[in-house]
Amino acid sequence: MQTAVHLSVVSPVYQAAEIVSELVKRLHASLATITECYEIILVDDGSQDHSWAEIEACCQADHRVVGVKLSRNFGQHQAITAGLEVSRGDYVAVMDCDLQDDPAYLPTLYAEAQKGFAIVYTKKESRKHKATKNIWARIFFFFFNLLSDYSKADAQVGAYSLLSRQVVHAFLRIKDTHRHYLLVLKLLGFRSTSIEIEHAERFAGKSSYTFRKMLRHAMDGITSQSVKLLHIAVGIGFFLFVASILAILFLIYKKLYIGAEIGWTSIMVTIIFSTGLIMMAIGILGLYLGKVFEQVKGRPLYIIEQQLNGDT
Q: Which residues contact 57 (CB under 8 A, 6 or more apart)?
Protein backbone atom coordinates (compact mmCIF):
# COMPACT_ATOMS: atom_id res chain seq x y z
CA MET A 1 0.00 0.00 0.00
CA GLN A 2 1.42 3.37 -1.04
CA THR A 3 1.93 6.03 1.63
CA ALA A 4 0.10 9.29 0.96
CA VAL A 5 2.44 12.04 -0.22
CA HIS A 6 1.87 15.61 0.90
CA LEU A 7 4.78 17.35 -0.83
CA SER A 8 6.74 16.37 -3.94
CA VAL A 9 9.88 17.95 -5.35
CA VAL A 10 10.63 17.56 -9.06
CA SER A 11 14.15 18.21 -10.32
CA PRO A 12 15.34 17.55 -13.90
CA VAL A 13 18.88 16.17 -13.92
CA TYR A 14 21.31 16.46 -16.83
CA GLN A 15 25.06 15.86 -16.62
CA ALA A 16 25.00 16.44 -12.84
CA ALA A 17 26.57 13.33 -11.33
CA GLU A 18 28.67 15.44 -8.93
CA ILE A 19 25.60 17.24 -7.60
CA VAL A 20 22.91 14.57 -7.14
CA SER A 21 23.90 13.28 -3.68
CA GLU A 22 24.33 16.80 -2.25
CA LEU A 23 21.00 17.88 -3.76
CA VAL A 24 19.19 14.94 -2.15
CA LYS A 25 20.91 15.58 1.18
CA ARG A 26 19.82 19.22 1.27
CA LEU A 27 16.30 18.38 0.13
CA HIS A 28 15.88 15.81 2.92
CA ALA A 29 17.00 18.40 5.48
CA SER A 30 14.62 21.06 4.19
CA LEU A 31 11.58 18.86 3.54
CA ALA A 32 11.79 17.24 6.99
CA THR A 33 10.93 20.63 8.53
CA ILE A 34 7.65 20.65 6.59
CA THR A 35 6.39 17.07 6.57
CA GLU A 36 7.58 13.48 6.72
CA CYS A 37 5.25 12.59 3.86
CA TYR A 38 7.32 13.79 0.94
CA GLU A 39 9.03 12.49 -2.16
CA ILE A 40 12.00 13.67 -4.22
CA ILE A 41 11.63 13.01 -7.94
CA LEU A 42 14.85 13.13 -9.95
CA VAL A 43 14.32 12.97 -13.71
CA ASP A 44 17.44 11.96 -15.64
CA ASP A 45 17.08 13.67 -19.02
CA GLY A 46 19.40 11.45 -21.01
CA SER A 47 22.62 12.26 -19.15
CA GLN A 48 25.84 10.88 -20.66
CA ASP A 49 27.74 10.82 -17.37
CA HIS A 50 26.95 8.61 -14.35
CA SER A 51 24.06 10.75 -13.09
CA TRP A 52 21.66 7.78 -13.26
CA ALA A 53 23.99 5.64 -11.15
CA GLU A 54 23.97 8.38 -8.50
CA ILE A 55 20.17 8.57 -8.66
CA GLU A 56 19.94 4.78 -8.29
CA ALA A 57 22.11 4.91 -5.17
CA CYS A 58 19.88 7.61 -3.63
CA CYS A 59 16.76 5.57 -4.45
CA GLN A 60 18.21 2.50 -2.78
CA ALA A 61 19.13 4.49 0.33
CA ASP A 62 15.66 6.05 0.78
CA HIS A 63 12.34 4.97 -0.75
CA ARG A 64 11.18 8.60 -0.75
CA VAL A 65 13.61 9.31 -3.58
CA VAL A 66 12.00 8.50 -6.95
CA GLY A 67 14.23 8.02 -9.98
CA VAL A 68 12.87 8.55 -13.49
CA LYS A 69 15.13 7.78 -16.44
CA LEU A 70 14.11 9.15 -19.84
CA SER A 71 15.12 7.16 -22.92
CA ARG A 72 17.07 10.13 -24.33
CA ASN A 73 17.53 13.86 -23.90
CA PHE A 74 14.09 15.41 -24.45
CA GLY A 75 14.82 18.82 -22.90
CA GLN A 76 14.46 20.48 -19.51
CA HIS A 77 10.78 21.41 -19.82
CA GLN A 78 9.77 17.96 -21.06
CA ALA A 79 11.68 16.45 -18.13
CA ILE A 80 9.79 18.73 -15.72
CA THR A 81 6.53 17.56 -17.31
CA ALA A 82 7.57 13.93 -16.80
CA GLY A 83 8.29 14.64 -13.14
CA LEU A 84 4.93 16.35 -12.65
CA GLU A 85 3.21 13.35 -14.25
CA VAL A 86 4.90 10.98 -11.79
CA SER A 87 4.40 13.20 -8.73
CA ARG A 88 1.80 12.32 -6.10
CA GLY A 89 1.98 15.20 -3.64
CA ASP A 90 -0.77 17.63 -2.70
CA TYR A 91 1.86 20.26 -3.50
CA VAL A 92 4.71 19.98 -5.98
CA ALA A 93 7.88 22.05 -5.99
CA VAL A 94 9.98 22.35 -9.14
CA MET A 95 13.66 23.25 -9.03
CA ASP A 96 16.84 22.87 -11.06
CA CYS A 97 19.38 20.34 -9.84
CA ASP A 98 22.45 22.64 -9.85
CA LEU A 99 21.77 23.97 -6.31
CA GLN A 100 21.86 27.56 -7.48
CA ASP A 101 18.33 27.59 -6.05
CA ASP A 102 18.63 26.72 -2.36
CA PRO A 103 16.27 23.97 -1.07
CA ALA A 104 16.23 25.88 2.24
CA TYR A 105 13.57 28.17 0.71
CA LEU A 106 11.07 25.31 0.42
CA PRO A 107 9.46 26.00 3.85
CA THR A 108 8.90 29.63 2.81
CA LEU A 109 7.36 28.55 -0.51
CA TYR A 110 5.12 26.11 1.34
CA ALA A 111 4.09 28.76 3.90
CA GLU A 112 3.00 31.10 1.08
CA ALA A 113 0.97 28.30 -0.51
CA GLN A 114 -0.88 27.85 2.79
CA LYS A 115 -2.18 31.41 2.40
CA GLY A 116 -4.27 30.27 -0.54
CA PHE A 117 -1.91 30.83 -3.47
CA ALA A 118 -2.01 28.10 -6.14
CA ILE A 119 1.41 29.06 -7.55
CA VAL A 120 4.37 30.47 -5.63
CA TYR A 121 7.23 31.77 -7.79
CA THR A 122 10.74 32.77 -6.77
CA LYS A 123 12.38 36.01 -7.80
CA LYS A 124 16.11 36.70 -7.71
CA GLU A 125 17.66 40.14 -7.28
CA SER A 126 20.66 38.95 -9.29
CA ARG A 127 21.65 35.76 -11.06
CA LYS A 128 25.01 34.14 -10.36
CA HIS A 129 25.72 33.44 -14.01
CA LYS A 130 28.45 34.70 -16.29
CA ALA A 131 27.98 38.33 -17.29
CA THR A 132 27.45 37.37 -20.94
CA LYS A 133 24.70 34.91 -20.02
CA ASN A 134 22.91 37.53 -17.92
CA ILE A 135 23.15 40.04 -20.79
CA TRP A 136 21.70 37.56 -23.29
CA ALA A 137 18.93 36.72 -20.82
CA ARG A 138 17.94 40.39 -20.57
CA ILE A 139 18.03 40.77 -24.35
CA PHE A 140 15.86 37.66 -24.73
CA PHE A 141 13.22 38.89 -22.28
CA PHE A 142 13.17 42.34 -23.91
CA PHE A 143 12.41 40.88 -27.33
CA PHE A 144 10.15 38.22 -25.85
CA ASN A 145 7.98 40.83 -24.14
CA LEU A 146 8.01 42.85 -27.36
CA LEU A 147 7.06 39.99 -29.67
CA SER A 148 4.86 37.78 -27.50
CA ASP A 149 1.41 38.09 -25.98
CA TYR A 150 2.91 38.11 -22.48
CA SER A 151 3.99 41.61 -21.49
CA LYS A 152 5.18 40.85 -17.97
CA ALA A 153 7.71 38.05 -18.40
CA ASP A 154 10.46 38.74 -15.84
CA ALA A 155 14.09 37.69 -16.29
CA GLN A 156 14.47 37.47 -12.51
CA VAL A 157 11.71 34.86 -12.07
CA GLY A 158 13.03 31.32 -12.37
CA ALA A 159 11.68 27.80 -12.56
CA TYR A 160 12.03 27.30 -8.78
CA SER A 161 8.37 27.30 -7.73
CA LEU A 162 5.62 25.53 -5.80
CA LEU A 163 2.33 24.35 -7.32
CA SER A 164 -0.91 23.06 -5.87
CA ARG A 165 -2.23 19.72 -7.11
CA GLN A 166 -4.96 21.60 -9.00
CA VAL A 167 -2.31 23.50 -10.96
CA VAL A 168 -0.38 20.28 -11.70
CA HIS A 169 -3.52 18.66 -13.13
CA ALA A 170 -4.18 21.73 -15.28
CA PHE A 171 -0.54 21.87 -16.43
CA LEU A 172 -0.64 18.25 -17.58
CA ARG A 173 -3.68 18.98 -19.76
CA ILE A 174 -1.54 21.27 -21.92
CA LYS A 175 -0.15 19.08 -24.71
CA ASP A 176 2.01 21.63 -26.55
CA THR A 177 5.04 19.95 -28.11
CA HIS A 178 7.11 23.12 -27.73
CA ARG A 179 6.71 24.27 -24.16
CA HIS A 180 8.22 26.50 -21.56
CA TYR A 181 7.39 25.68 -17.94
CA LEU A 182 6.89 29.26 -16.75
CA LEU A 183 4.93 30.33 -19.83
CA VAL A 184 2.51 27.42 -19.41
CA LEU A 185 1.96 28.47 -15.79
CA LYS A 186 1.24 32.03 -16.96
CA LEU A 187 -1.24 30.61 -19.47
CA LEU A 188 -3.11 28.73 -16.72
CA GLY A 189 -3.78 31.93 -14.80
CA PHE A 190 -4.16 30.66 -11.22
CA ARG A 191 -3.74 32.96 -8.21
CA SER A 192 -0.03 33.42 -7.61
CA THR A 193 2.61 35.23 -5.59
CA SER A 194 6.39 35.27 -5.37
CA ILE A 195 9.13 35.34 -2.77
CA GLU A 196 12.59 36.92 -2.96
CA ILE A 197 15.52 34.50 -2.89
CA GLU A 198 19.28 34.67 -3.33
CA HIS A 199 20.83 32.91 -6.31
CA ALA A 200 23.92 30.88 -5.44
CA GLU A 201 26.93 29.79 -7.49
CA ARG A 202 26.61 26.42 -9.23
CA PHE A 203 27.64 23.64 -6.81
CA ALA A 204 29.74 21.76 -9.39
CA GLY A 205 30.24 21.37 -13.13
CA LYS A 206 29.01 23.84 -15.73
CA SER A 207 25.70 24.67 -17.34
CA SER A 208 24.67 22.66 -20.40
CA TYR A 209 22.90 25.69 -21.91
CA THR A 210 25.14 26.85 -24.75
CA PHE A 211 24.46 30.06 -26.69
CA ARG A 212 23.00 27.98 -29.53
CA LYS A 213 20.60 26.19 -27.16
CA MET A 214 19.58 29.48 -25.55
CA LEU A 215 18.89 31.03 -28.97
CA ARG A 216 16.81 28.05 -30.05
CA HIS A 217 14.96 28.09 -26.74
CA ALA A 218 14.23 31.79 -27.22
CA MET A 219 12.81 31.27 -30.72
CA ASP A 220 10.71 28.33 -29.51
CA GLY A 221 9.39 30.44 -26.64
CA ILE A 222 8.36 33.31 -28.90
CA THR A 223 6.91 31.35 -31.83
CA SER A 224 5.10 28.79 -29.69
CA GLN A 225 3.30 31.37 -27.56
CA SER A 226 2.40 34.17 -29.98
CA VAL A 227 1.66 34.97 -33.64
CA LYS A 228 2.87 38.55 -33.28
CA LEU A 229 5.82 37.90 -35.59
CA LEU A 230 3.38 37.07 -38.38
CA HIS A 231 1.52 40.31 -37.74
CA ILE A 232 4.81 42.22 -37.87
CA ALA A 233 5.73 40.52 -41.16
CA VAL A 234 2.35 41.53 -42.63
CA GLY A 235 2.80 45.08 -41.36
CA ILE A 236 6.26 45.36 -42.93
CA GLY A 237 4.90 44.01 -46.22
CA PHE A 238 2.05 46.54 -46.24
CA PHE A 239 4.44 49.39 -45.39
CA LEU A 240 6.78 48.42 -48.23
CA PHE A 241 3.84 48.16 -50.63
CA VAL A 242 2.73 51.71 -49.82
CA ALA A 243 6.34 52.94 -49.95
CA SER A 244 6.86 51.33 -53.36
CA ILE A 245 3.71 53.00 -54.78
CA LEU A 246 4.94 56.38 -53.52
CA ALA A 247 8.41 55.70 -54.94
CA ILE A 248 6.96 54.79 -58.35
CA LEU A 249 4.91 58.01 -58.42
CA PHE A 250 7.98 60.01 -57.44
CA LEU A 251 10.12 58.39 -60.17
CA ILE A 252 7.40 59.06 -62.79
CA TYR A 253 7.24 62.68 -61.68
CA LYS A 254 11.03 62.96 -61.70
CA LYS A 255 11.26 61.44 -65.18
CA LEU A 256 8.54 63.64 -66.67
CA TYR A 257 9.39 66.96 -65.09
CA ILE A 258 13.06 66.78 -64.18
CA GLY A 259 14.38 64.26 -66.67
CA ALA A 260 16.81 62.56 -64.30
CA GLU A 261 18.09 59.08 -65.10
CA ILE A 262 17.25 56.29 -62.72
CA GLY A 263 20.43 54.84 -61.18
CA TRP A 264 21.19 51.14 -61.24
CA THR A 265 22.58 51.32 -57.70
CA SER A 266 19.27 52.43 -56.20
CA ILE A 267 17.44 49.73 -58.17
CA MET A 268 19.80 46.97 -56.97
CA VAL A 269 19.67 48.16 -53.37
CA THR A 270 15.87 48.18 -53.50
CA ILE A 271 15.78 44.67 -54.99
CA ILE A 272 18.20 43.24 -52.45
CA PHE A 273 16.39 44.95 -49.56
CA SER A 274 12.97 43.74 -50.72
CA THR A 275 14.25 40.21 -51.35
CA GLY A 276 15.75 40.08 -47.87
CA LEU A 277 12.46 41.10 -46.28
CA ILE A 278 10.56 38.56 -48.38
CA MET A 279 12.94 35.79 -47.27
CA MET A 280 12.58 36.92 -43.66
CA ALA A 281 8.78 36.76 -43.90
CA ILE A 282 8.97 33.30 -45.51
CA GLY A 283 11.33 32.19 -42.73
CA ILE A 284 8.94 33.40 -40.03
CA LEU A 285 6.07 31.58 -41.72
CA GLY A 286 8.27 28.48 -41.94
CA LEU A 287 8.93 28.57 -38.19
CA TYR A 288 5.21 28.52 -37.48
CA LEU A 289 4.56 25.79 -40.03
CA GLY A 290 7.34 23.77 -38.43
CA LYS A 291 5.64 24.11 -35.04
CA VAL A 292 2.37 22.91 -36.57
CA PHE A 293 4.18 19.97 -38.20
CA GLU A 294 5.72 18.92 -34.87
CA GLN A 295 2.41 19.29 -33.03
CA VAL A 296 0.19 17.36 -35.45
CA LYS A 297 2.49 14.33 -35.39
CA GLY A 298 1.18 13.71 -31.88
CA ARG A 299 4.41 12.17 -30.59
CA PRO A 300 4.85 11.78 -26.82
CA LEU A 301 6.63 14.63 -25.03
CA TYR A 302 8.97 12.12 -23.39
CA ILE A 303 9.50 8.39 -22.99
CA ILE A 304 10.27 6.88 -19.59
CA GLU A 305 12.78 4.07 -19.85
CA GLN A 306 12.96 3.20 -16.16
CA GLN A 307 11.46 4.29 -12.86
CA LEU A 308 12.64 3.49 -9.34
CA ASN A 309 10.29 3.82 -6.32
CA GLY A 310 6.99 5.69 -6.39
CA ASP A 311 3.99 4.31 -8.26
CA THR A 312 5.58 2.28 -11.06
A: 21
% residues pLDDT > 90 (the chain): 45
d(CA 241, CA 172): 45
Q: Which of 218, 165, 209 is nearest to 190 (CA)?
A: 165
Beta bridge pairs of residue 197: 124
Q: At 32, is the pLDDT very low, low, confident or very high (cuts 50, 70, 90)? A: very high
Do 2 and 81 meet the contact criterion of CB atoms below 8 Å apart?
no
Rounded CA-CA distance 204/222 in Å is: 31
Predicted confidence (pLDDT) per residue in 114-169, tens digit: 999 999 999 987 655 566 666 666 676 676 667 666 556 666 788 899 999 999 99
Structural domain spans, the chain: 7-209+299-308, 228-296
Residue 38, Cβ neighbours under 10 Å: how many?
21
* Cα distance between residue 245 and residue 240, in whole Å: 9
pLDDT at 111 over 80: yes
* Sign of the four-CA dihedral 246, 247, 253, 256: negative
Amino acid at 25: K
CATH class of 7-209+299-308: alpha beta
